[in-house]
Amino acid sequence: MPSVPERVRLVEVGPRDGLQNEAFSVPTDIKIAFIDALSQAGFPAIECTSFVSPRAVPQLADAEEVMRRIARRPGTRYLALVPNERGLERALAAGCDALALFAAATDAFSQANIGVSIDESLQRYATVAVRAKAAGCWLRGYVSVAVHCPYTGPVEPQRAVEVARRLAELGCDELAVADTIGKAVPDEVARLLEALLRWLPAERVAVHLHDTTGRALDNVAVALAYGVRTIDAAVAGLGGCPFAPGAPGNLATERLLDFLEARGYDHGIDRRALERARTLLWEAIPGLARTDSPTAQLGSQ
Ligand code: HMG
Ligand code: MG
Question: Does the model's pTM come out above 0.90?
Fold first, then answer.
């Protein structure tokens, strides 16, 4: 346990990664109230939506309205995903100043998710990044399937590291390595971080862990031991990627908070406000999938 509490930055991805994976679209007013309540809980970053094709992800087709109408709290970064220049233009027109580019460590997943190979996606992102930086945006770069791919199996760390390196060269300020299908075990996460942190400082690294097999917190422990202090989570373990079979839920924010508190880390999140955000969503959408325990997630596959 650290003697002076160390701060861990939580990135709340529920509004984006969570709501993209529901069978129906949550009404826009509720999304906005949910994000506003998360802002009040004090998250340093909230991933709000995606400017992707509404055909691919109809659940987030209201991205413009969400980004225009949320109340921005000083100290919180409001992120949105963009897959291409069209997405960038939409995001900038909606007032975004923090964007996430999302690449993958395997061509198979890249094709399934965004319809192009890794190389083609990075070529696209090169133009997007130049324009986004010129517009003053902060950039996160995701490397999906950094440990396991639902289509091709285990992924060599060097492949994920190479994609992270190329995203960093494009100007991404932060690199988020993702266990998209929640299959990683601590040794695998250690190997990945060992390789990644050889050239990238831990301050620029985030981990994005789905919790399919209930190992996400073990993997957080590894990330913390390697000095990573930015961790993604979603309220009540919402979420998953519609293009990654077997990715039902993110690491639940509440479980991450318990875990950090038990180990003496400071997280800066107001738990009562978080509970209000969660209650608000639950009361508005009674049928929303609840995957806030590993058992529930295993049962929902
Ligand atoms: P495509 O069909 O190959 O692209 O989609 P296209 O350029 O041929 O365009 C097809 C149609 O989409 C056209 O419309 C375009 O205008 C439109 P049409 O002429 O047919 O009416 N279009 C767009 N519309 C709005 N916004 C745009 C846009 N781009 C094209 N930005 C595309 C390619 C990438 C757009 C598509 O495959 C797509 O949107 N995919 C969504 C992928 C996605 O959102 N995945 C989930 C997020 S990633 C994730 O969850 C993983 C993560 O959590 C980390 C982890 O856990 O691993 C981040
Ligand atoms: Mg995800």
Answer: yes
Å from CA of 188 to ligand 1 middle:
30
Mean pLDDT by 10 residues, the chain (301 residues): 81 96 89 98 98 97 98 98 98 98 98 98 98 98 98 98 98 98 97 97 97 95 98 91 76 96 97 95 75 37 23
Which of 50, 51, 52 has most ligand 1 atoms within 8 Å of its beta carbon, as the pocket-test mutant? 52
Of the candidates 253, 218, 210, the one whose C-alpha atom is nearest the C-alpha of residue 11 is 253
> Which residue matches tokens 């990627």?
241
Ligand 2 centre and the CA of 49: distance in Å?
12
- The closest alpha carbon to 161, from 145, 140, 146, 179, belongs to 146
Under a CB-based contact definition with an 8 Å cutoff, are residues 46 and 140 in contact?
no
What is the fold, at CATH topology level, of the domain defined by 9-284? TIM Barrel (3.20.20)
Interatomic CA distance for residues 50 and 39, integer angstroms = 18
Q: Is residue 241 among the annotated active site residues?
A: yes
